[in-house]
Design a protein that fits this description.
The chain is an alpha/beta fold. The protein is 58% helix and 9% strand.
């Protein structure tokens, strides 16, 4: 049988430093949940530094923490320990299309319910205030999150012309570098921990722009660069990147942000929505 990351950790355990052994012990005792944690969350839970986790990954021959999470997910799947799909976002194993659909439905509803529980009225109001006062609002994300960012732009563009979407990550970084204090970045990132994201947020913050982050993890590199963090529900395995349940949680945030924004700017939004509705009506038969 092929060795897994857990086997690699076991074989290296005796030569590890004290902090690496502490981290290993936590991983073995919580191997089903670690794959869903951000590096900051794991560091706090295991009582080690993020640097320790990074060194730990390199010692095991891994490029970084995300590769460790993927290896743990593969090890769990190989040992048949993935658990119930409705709890962890894994593949639905039941036979029969109806059973599959019911489980997917439960996962999607759970994502909505959890996102609602995580909704913070104060943070939402702060986000709406930033969107209202902004000169420009850039809706950004990478990979699957960029699709969600485009959905946000499409929704808000019916109410105001200042919302902008840029798909290419290089052009996102260019636009962010030219941001000023009147600008806002509305950024979508489930993990809150990608290099391309930091290449956008760091120059934007340097220029004085405000950042609204939609993410799963409050403790993440992106959160530390954000003025407002809005949390989405759904627990996503590294093997299920871009899951619909995670997107549903983010879409719900878009929806309540949009409605709150329109309530705050009712006259302007009503006028804009009437104009845009008339413009698109010509496209319909």
């Amino acid at each position: 049988m092929q060795n897994t990351i857990l086997d690699s950790i076991s074989s290296s355990y005796s030569s590890m430093t004290r902090s690496a052994k502490k981290l290993s012990d936590y991983i073995f005792n919580n191997r089903s949940s670690v794959q869903y944690m951000s590096i900051t969350s794991l560091a706090e839970a295991a009582g080690v530094s993020e640097a320790t986790i990074t060194r730990f990954c390199r010692t095991l021959g891994l490029a970084g923490y995300n590769e460790l999470k993927l290896a743990l997910a593969l090890a769990q799947a190989g040992r048949g320990e993935a658990g119930n799909a409705s709890e962890n976002g894994g593949e639905v194993k039941e036979d029969g299309l109806e059973s599959v659909c019911r489980n997917l439905y439960q996962m999607d509803v759970a994502a909505l319910s959890e996102t609602l529980e995580l909704m913070n009225p104060e943070n939402t109001k702060r986000a709406v205030d930033l969107l209202t006062k902004a000169r420009r609002v850039f809706c950004f994300g990478q990979g699957g999150s960029n699709v969600t960012a485009m959905e946000a732009w499409a929704r808000f563009s019916t109410a105001a012309s200042k919302f902008i979407h840029i798909e290419d990550s290089h052009m996102q970084a260019t636009a962010a570098a030219l941001c000023q204090s009147e600008d806002v970045i509305l950024f979508f990132s489930y993990s809150g921990s990608t290099r391309d994201m930091l290449d956008v947020l760091r120059p934007a913050k340097k220029g004085g722009a405000s950042v609204i982050l939609i993410t799963r993890f409050y403790n993440s590199p992106a959160a530390s660069l954000s003025d407002v963090v809005l949390l989405c529900g759904s627990t996503e395995s590294p093997l299920q990147s871009g899951s619909i349940a995670a997107k549903i949680g983010q879409m719900f945030i878009i929806d309540y942000l949009f409605h709150a924004y329109c309530r705050e700017n009712s006259e302007a939004c009503e006028a804009a929505q009437e104009i845009t509705a008339q413009a698109t009506a010509r496209k319909l038969l």
